[in-house]
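The material for today's practical consists of a large collection of protein records. There is nothing in a record beyond a sequence line and a structure line. Backbone structure tokens are a discrete shorthand for how the chain folds in space. Nothing more is needed to start thinking about how sequence determines fold. As an example, a complete record with its sequence and its structure tokens follows.
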Amino acid sequence: MIRLAVVTVLLMIVTLHANAAQRAKLVIVSAVYGDLANDKTVDVTKKLAGLVKDENLSITVTPEAFGDPAPGAAKKLKVGYTIDGLYRSKTVDQGEVLDISTRLFISKAVYGNLPNGKSDDVTEQVADLVRKNSLSVKADNETFGDPAEGVVKRLRVDYLFDGVKGSKTIAEGETLTISDKGK
């Protein structure tokens, strides 16, 4: 009985370490807030890096959060970051939520006449739609443009969820979803 309990505890520890190893590493490389067009900004890299929790970041972009380097001007937050060494960037308008999720990582997304016809890489667009480790996106020309006129297009999204590879493909007009459970 004691031997069984010890084996159970050891299995739990191994599982915890394996899950921790699968978690992608989020690093904030740069972050500026303000009137980006007129270069009236403030560096908020350290502040954002300090807000990363469990390798994720979610914050509403407001002057209260970052100060007001350009009174009266429309402001944005521009963030450069890496997830497991792969560089990405996001720009978010004031009042919107910056959400960088690492459990669900979009590694590649293409829209067009798949598998071998004309298509566009839409990885950045799809990655920007990830919210709270889930994704919902409609595959249509309004969202991604029309890389192959007169042809029914498809959207393919390759992703990692907690380190496990996945891929989904849907037809034009359908909605692709990946839940916060990775399905």
